[in-house]
Amino acid sequence: xxxxxxxxxxxxxxxxxxxxxxxxxxxxxxxxxxxxxxxxxxxxxxxxxxxxxxxxxxxxxxxxxxxxxxxxxxxxxxxxxxxxxxxxxxxxxxxxxxxxxxxxxxxxxxxxxxxxxxxxxxxxxxxxxxxxxxxxxxxxxxxxxxxxxxxxxxxxxxxxxxxxxxxxxxxxxxxxxxxxxxxxxxxxxxxxxxxxxxxxxxxxxxxxxxxxxxxxxxxxxxxxxxxxxxxxxxxxxxxxxxxxxxxxxxxxxxxxxxxxxxxxxxxxxxxxxxxxxxxxxxxxxxxxxxxxxxxxxxxxxxxxxxxxxxxxxxxxxxxxxxxxxxxxxxxxxxxxxxxxxxxxxxxxxxxxxxxxxxxxxxxxxxxxxxxxxxxxxxxxxxxxxxxxxxxxxxxxxxxxxxxxxxxxxxxxxxxxxxxxxxxxxxxxxxxx
Length: 432
Prior knowledge:
Layout: H1 32-41, H2 44-50, H3 62-69, H4 86-101, E1 113-120, E2 123-130, E3 138-145, E4 152-158, H5 181-191, H6 196-202, E5 206-210, H7 242-265, H8 270-286, E6 291-301, H9 303-314, E7 318-324, H10 330-337, H11 350-353, E8 368-373, H12 381-397, E9 404-409, H13 417-431
Helix pairs in contact: 8-9
C-alpha cells in the first residue's frame, strides 16, 4: 500500500485531525527536551521516520490487527450482501451504532439564555448559554443576516480541535474587530484567514456555533481536578496570555487519555458525548424563530468533521452535511495514523459493524459531501480514497449516487477559501 509521507513544516502541528502541537524552535529543529513530545504531538519529520514502507505503528502485530477486520463489509454495513432494502438496514444499523456510541441521555432540550446581543459584519450576533445535566454550561454564538426576512436554512457550524481546547466556538466566528492573536493565527492557518461561520451566515443562513465537550465554556478546569494530575499548571488568568493558554492546552492534551478511560469506565464514549452535545445544540438552533427546522445542516473541519460524521449519521434532522479533512478508514488508524489522532474519535467495537466512513451514510439518501486534502498528513491518501469508495458504493446501492459528493484538493489539513466556496454552493443546492 502506497503511503503519503509528504508533510509540511509548521510551528504547531496537529495532534489528531484534531490536533496537538509539537513545538519547534525558531530554527525549525527540535530540542532534546521536546523530542518525545514532538513524536507524540505531531512533528512531521518524526511522522516520516515512523511511517517507512516496511513499518507500521504496532510493528509485528500490524498485519494480525489489520486482518482482524478483514476485507469484507462489517456486520452492520450496507455493503454487506445480507442487506437489500435501505430502510430495513437503517433501522438495524442505527440501533447498533447508537448502542456502541452510548451517548448520554438528555430527555429535554434546555431553554437557552441570551447573554449578549449586538450587530457586526452585517450580522445579528447573539451569545447564548444553556445548561446540560452535567458539566459547565454550554455557550454558543447565533448568527443571522441583518434585516433577514422569512425562514432561513439553519447550519450547525462545528469547530475544530486544532490542539486548542481553551478556545472552541471562537475559532470559526468573528464577533468584533478585536480577536485574540492565537485566534487570528488559527484562522489564517486553517481557514484562509476567514471566520467561515460569519461568511456562511452572510449568504443567507442562520448559523449556530456551539462549544462542545471539553472546549472553551465546556473545558475541564484545573481547580476541579486533584493537584496530583495538574502537572504544575493553573487555570488561565483574565489576561489570557498566550503562554498561559499554551500551558493549558498542553495539559488538556495529556488529560485526554484520563478522560477517555473515565468515559469508557462510565459506559459511554467520547464521540457519544459529542453526539449528545451537538444534538442538543441542533435542537436549540431549530427552535430559533428565524430557522426553518426542515432545512438543517452541519459542517466542520477536522474535529468538526468528526462531529459532522457522527451527527450527520445519527440525526435524521440533518438534511445536508459537509465533512472536511476528516475521512479515512479504520485500517488507516490501525497501521499508520492512530497516533496522529486524539482519543475523541475512537469507538470500541465499531469496526466490527462498519467502517468509519460508513457512519456518515446512516441517513442515506440524505445528501452528504466530503472534502479532502491530498497532502493531509493525518491520513493515508490511499485509505482516504478507499473511504470515498465505500461511500460511493453504499449510495449507489441505495439508488442515490447523485446525493453523495466528494472532492480532493491539493494541500495540507485545512478548510480554505476554495473549499468553503464549494461547500457553501453545495449547501445552497440542497437547502435553498
